[in-house]
């Protein structure tokens, strides 16, 4: 029975995830339209809500074209890898205390970090296998950017782990009963947010795509549903990072009056909107500026945060 | 009419030691025009550059195929004439404005001219253009290739014996052999572009940025030699947008060419009509009535606003900011509402006429403009916060793509790009045309000459344009909008309805076109992107004998390699965005 329930849970989570990611493409375009004084997609279905479906159908019916000069196997594998790692990352997210695929996993955070790190391969390999110079430049940017931002993404989470005494995400949420970690871990929150934007390569850190510079960057040669997978993986990545922020810093499902699942969705949704707002507002830094910012500003800040958190725990901990 | 005979005391300045005095040509504009021999041309140009109190810019080089020209009494024998146009750029705003035209006669037997690239680096593209379109060889030119037509092209289109229309040539046929040859000609060979394949410690990557790329603003190709993302060498390749606008000028009546000028700088609208009709009016000796002058200036400034708004938006988009471009296009729409109300068209109104403008202002034009004048400044304040004070925007543009004032003048940079280097040089002030001398405005400058400063100057210019438009609104004189002159095309309508002479003129002017007296004249304006001039040669016919369009964008693109070497691809995109060009303005 548990096995059956577990599978059902996985299927429901996956379906919810994918439709959320697809729906998010519509949400983003509508919100951007709203902020940019224009309509956005409003024709398909009520308020254009079925736009994502129309886009999906269009992508599915497009010719499945692989450039003759591409490295075929890797070219096909890359978008699938991107999709798979993001979806696997969701396994550890606890939507509520009782609803998560593997929320109690005692190395939950490490698993999440492992999955996001693997996600880099999708972008790098996609860029490499395309055998296109713009794609290659995009892939290289992705590799450099993600390696450097990976470093302090892990470090930025250490503070919460130290406060919660656990790597399990359910435990971390439970530990925020009295106070959300965004308060004691504000530096951690900010650095994780920045790393998360870099990780999902969203504007202003969308250098691997950098449409004004590299055409479409690493996915220049992709079309049809393979492009669609990169596309959905990016949005799934946003949902993943947003739910991670909710879980780690915003008290997860905890909240008064409303049922836990609503709180979780509300917090995640608002975080996602913030991501979209950033895209509407900010220009893109240059590649070397991004690197410099990562290594010279964010990394020291993260280390400082860990040191201060450690010192504070030592000082105030009753067992100390 | 502005027919100045060049004073004789100005000649010795350019006469090379020990040679006969250069013959002075009488022209209908105020440019000193001198003929020199091929042998002394280099010397004369060098002296002009060195001896000028400040700086001489090589403003333009062009050629005239003289073989079918009938009215050229008093000019030396010539089959092809090379025309060098120099302009003085002086810091002191009181100094008299000086422009010099140096002409060199070439005979069919030896169509060779020494290259002037050593004197002015920007002679490079101009000489290539003449080589391409006239088939004149420039000895000592470092890279004499075709520039506007494809490398496989065989003819020289601006020669008088060259066909001008598709109906005059055989149908185009792309055979397999020809297709193969064309394809082969496109094969990239780094050496042909002056690039090495590898250095001591690395193999270079060659990247073909364009002609179809989101950030090159049209069909423009830059071939990049890269080390990682760092640019070792950048070579611009233009000509994809070439439509033969100058050749069309020789096959359209003086009147019917006006709409073609709209499409040169397609963001500038009537700003393009301006120098063209002014040049024709100089040839015809027409004085435009004050109301028409002020309507022209007002519309030109509205188009400056529209063009600068597009520049501002696309510039911020080029560095990755998604939203401002939408706001600015919305504002530009407001400009177009006014232009549409006045002209009936939006982007290409073709609204100016020889001798005035097409019609009077419509009722209620002042309310429209007044509400716009109140609306835009607030929006500009908002954009200041959104774009110019954004730290990421500054990080991308401050110190990027900078050139000095000397470099700017060496390379023929005009307009906001020049003023961003600290020189308050504006043609509207230095050589006031139309009614600019009656209007008050400042000339915004910036000091560092980098991408950020170019944007700063553009924005400040928008506020000055608003100021000029407000003055036009308050001071708009009454009276006719067309000159009372037989060559005004079409003549004032009220008269055509009453006397037969004017009706006949009207009929002839709009069917054959007006017959403009023989002569030469150029008119120049401070266009949206820099100095735009039309140099017209009339042989006393219904069509121009030679139409030369000097555009700012052509000169500006030539400088890209100089300012982009050693930067990153992302910087190049910022540089391209900050130059403010449109390809139609480059290729014509």
Automatic annotation (TrEMBL), chain A:
One GO process term, biological-process aspect: aerobic respiration
Keyword RNA-binding: no
GO molecular function, one term: oxidoreductase activity, acting on NAD(P)H, quinone or similar compound as acceptor
UniProt-listed Enzyme Commission number(s): 7.1.1.-
Entry's localization field: Cell membrane; Membrane
Keyword Translocase belongs to the record: yes
Record's catalysed reaction(s): a quinone + NADH + 5 H(+)(in) = a quinol + NAD(+) + 4 H(+)(out)
Its job: NDH-1 shuttles electrons from NADH, via FMN and iron-sulfur (Fe-S) centers, to quinones in the respiratory chain. The immediate electron acceptor for the enzyme in this species is believed to be ubiquinone. Couples the redox reaction to proton translocation (for every two electrons transferred, four hydrogen ions are translocated across the cytoplasmic membrane), and thus conserves the redox energy in a proton gradient. This subunit may bind ubiquinone.
Recorded family membership: Belongs to the complex I subunit 1 family.
Protein name listed in UniProt: NADH-quinone oxidoreductase subunit H
Organism placement in taxonomy: Bacteria, Pseudomonadati, Pseudomonadota, Alphaproteobacteria, Acetobacterales
Encoding gene, per UniProt annotation: nuoH
Automatic annotation (TrEMBL), chain B:
Highest taxon, organism lineage: Bacteria
Species annotation: Lichenicoccus roseus
SUPFAM superfamilies noted in UniProt: HydB/Nqo4-like (SSF56762), Nqo5-like (SSF143243)
Protein family membership: In the C-terminal section; belongs to the complex I 49 kDa subunit family.
Region span, NADH dehydrogenase I subunit D: 203-588
Keyword tags: Cell membrane, Membrane, Multifunctional enzyme, NAD, Oxidoreductase, Quinone, Translocase, Transport, Ubiquinone
PROSITE patterns: COMPLEX1_30K (PS00542), COMPLEX1_49K (PS00535)
Record localization: Cell inner membrane; Cell membrane
Function (record text): NDH-1 shuttles electrons from NADH, via FMN and iron-sulfur (Fe-S) centers, to quinones in the respiratory chain. The immediate electron acceptor for the enzyme in this species is believed to be ubiquinone. Couples the redox reaction to proton translocation (for every two electrons transferred, four hydrogen ions are translocated across the cytoplasmic membrane), and thus conserves the redox energy in a proton gradient.
Enzyme Commission number(s): 7.1.1.-
Region (Disordered): 1-23
Catalytic activity, reaction form: a quinone + NADH + 5 H(+)(in) = a quinol + NAD(+) + 4 H(+)(out)
Gene Ontology cellular component annotations, sorted alphabetically: NADH dehydrogenase complex; plasma membrane
Protein name as catalogued: NADH-quinone oxidoreductase subunit C/D
Membrane topology: Peripheral membrane protein
Region (NADH dehydrogenase I subunit C): 1-179
InterPro entries (alphabetical): NADH_DH_suCD (IPR023062), NADH_Q_OxRdtase_suD (IPR001135), NADH_quin_OxRdtase_su_C/D-like (IPR037232), NADH_UbQ_OxRdtase_30kDa_su (IPR001268), NADH_UbQ_OxRdtase_49kDa_CS (IPR014029), NADH_UbQ_OxRdtase_CS (IPR020396), NDH1_su_D/H (IPR022885), NiFe-Hase_large (IPR029014)
Record-level Gene Ontology MF annotations: NAD binding; NADH dehydrogenase (quinone) (non-electrogenic) activity; NADH dehydrogenase (ubiquinone) activity; quinone binding
Biological process, per Gene Ontology: respiratory electron transport chain
Assembly notes: NDH-1 is composed of 13 different subunits. Subunits NuoB, CD, E, F, and G constitute the peripheral sector of the complex.
């Amino acid at each position: 029975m548990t096995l059956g329930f577990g599978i059902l849970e996985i299927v429901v989570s996956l379906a919810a995830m994918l439709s959320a990611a697809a729906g998010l493409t519509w949400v983003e375009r509508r919100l951007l339209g709203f902020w940019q004084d224009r309509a956005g997609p409003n024709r398909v279905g009520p308020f254009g809500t079925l736009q994502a479906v129309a886009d999906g159908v269009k992508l599915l019916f497009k010719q499945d074209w692989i450039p003759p000069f591409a490295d075929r196997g890797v070219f096909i594998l890359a978008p699938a890898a991107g999709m798979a790692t993001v979806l696997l990352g969701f396994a550890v997210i606890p939507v509520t205390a009782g609803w998560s695929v593997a929320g109690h996993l005692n190395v939950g955070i490490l698993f999440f970090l492992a999955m996001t790190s693997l996600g880099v391969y999708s972008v790098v390999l996609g860029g490499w296998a395309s055998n296109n110079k713009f794609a290659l430049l995009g892939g290289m940017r992705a590799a450099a950017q993600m390696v450097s931002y990976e470093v302090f993404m892990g470090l930025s989470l250490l503070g919460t782990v130290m406060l919660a005494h656990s790597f399990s995400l359910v435990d971390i949420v439970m530990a925020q009963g009295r106070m959300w970690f965004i308060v004691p871990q504000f530096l951690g929150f900010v650095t994780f947010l920045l790393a998360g934007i870099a990780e999902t390569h969203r504007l202003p850190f969308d250098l691997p795509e950098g449409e004004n510079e590299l055409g479409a960057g690493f996915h220049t040669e992709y079309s049809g549903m393979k492009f669609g997978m990169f596309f959905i993986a990016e949005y799934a990545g946003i949902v993943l990072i947003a739910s991670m922020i909710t879980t780690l810093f915003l008290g997860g499902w905890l909240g008064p009056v409303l049922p836990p699942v609503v709180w979780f969705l509300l917090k995640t949704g608002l975080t996602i909107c913030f991501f979209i707002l950033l895209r509407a507002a900010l220009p893109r830094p240059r590649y070397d500026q991004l690197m410099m910012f990562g290594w010279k500003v964010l990394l020291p800040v993260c280390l400082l945060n860990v040191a201060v958190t450690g010192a504070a725990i030592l000082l105030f901990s009753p067992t100390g | 009419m502005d027919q100045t005979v060049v004073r004789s005391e100005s000649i010795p300045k350019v006469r090379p030691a020990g040679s006969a005095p250069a013959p002075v040509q009488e022209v209908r504009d105020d440019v000193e025009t001198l003929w020199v021999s091929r042998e002394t041309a280099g010397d004369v140009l060098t002296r002009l550059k060195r001896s000028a109190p400040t700086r001489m810019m090589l403003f333009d080089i062009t050629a005239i195929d003289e073989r079918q020209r009938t009215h050229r009494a008093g000019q030396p024998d010539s089959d092809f004439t090379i025309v060098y146009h120099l302009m003085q750029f002086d810091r002191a705003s009181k100094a008299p404005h000086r422009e010099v035209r140096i002409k060199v006669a070439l005979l069919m037997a030896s169509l060779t001219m020494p290259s002037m690239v050593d004197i002015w680096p920007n002679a490079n593209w101009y000489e290539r253009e003449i080589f391409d379109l006239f088939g004149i060889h420039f000895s000592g030119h470092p890279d004499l290739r075709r520039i506007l037509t494809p490398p496989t092209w065989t003819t020289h289109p601006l020669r008088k014996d060259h066909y001008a229309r598709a109906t005059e040539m055989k149908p185009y046929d792309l055979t397999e052999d020809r297709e193969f040859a064309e394809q082969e000609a496109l094969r990239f060979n780094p050496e042909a572009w002056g690039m090495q394949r590898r250095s001591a410690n690395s193999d270079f990557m060659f990247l073909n940025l364009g002609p179809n790329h989101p950030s090159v603003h049209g069909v423009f190709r830059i071939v990049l030699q890269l080390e990682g993302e760092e640019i070792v060498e950048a070579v611009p390749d233009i000509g994809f947008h070439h439509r033969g606008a100058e050749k069309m000028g020789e096959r359209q009546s003086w009147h019917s060419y006006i709409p073609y000028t709209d499409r040169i700088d397609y963001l500038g609208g009537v700003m393009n009509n301006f120098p063209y009709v002014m040049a024709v009016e100089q040839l015809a000796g027409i004085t435009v009535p004050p109301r028409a002058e002020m309507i022209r200036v007002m519309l030109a400034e509205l188009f400056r606003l529209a063009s600068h708004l597009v520049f501002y938006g696309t510039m911020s988009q080029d560095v990755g900011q998604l939203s401002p471009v939408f706001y600015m296009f919305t504002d530009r729409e407001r400009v177009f509402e006014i232009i549409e109300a006045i002209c009936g068209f939006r982007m290409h109104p073709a609204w100016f006429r020889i001798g005035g403008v097409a019609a009077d202002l419509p009722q209620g034009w002042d309310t429209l403009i007044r509400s716009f004048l109140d609306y835009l400044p607030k929006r500009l304040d908002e954009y200041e916060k959104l774009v110019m004070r954004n730290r990421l925007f500054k990080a991308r543009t401050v110190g990027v793509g900078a050139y000095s004032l000397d470099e700017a003048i060496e390379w023929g940079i005009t307009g906001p790009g020049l003023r961003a280097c600290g020189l308050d040089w504006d043609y509207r002030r230095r050589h006031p045309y139309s009614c600019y001398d009656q209007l008050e405005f400042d000339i915004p400058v910036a000091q560092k000459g980098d991408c950020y400063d170019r944007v700063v100057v553009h924005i400040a210019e928008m506020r000055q344009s608003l100021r000029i438009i407000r003055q036009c609104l308050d001071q708009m004189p009454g009276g006719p909008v067309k000159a009372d002159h037989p060559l005004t095309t079409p003549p004032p309508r009220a008269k055509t309805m009453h006397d037969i002479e004017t009706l006949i003129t009207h009929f002839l002017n709009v069917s054959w076109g007006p017959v403009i007296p023989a002569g030469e004249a150029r008119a120049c304006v401070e266009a949206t992107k820099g100095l735009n001039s039309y140099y017209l040669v009339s042989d006393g016919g219904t069509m121009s004998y030679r139409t030369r369009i000097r555009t700012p964008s052509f000169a500006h693109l030539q400088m890209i390699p100089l300012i982009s070497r050693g930067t990153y691809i992302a910087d190049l995109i910022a540089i391209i965005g900050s130059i403010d060009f449109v390809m139609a303005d480059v290729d014509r």
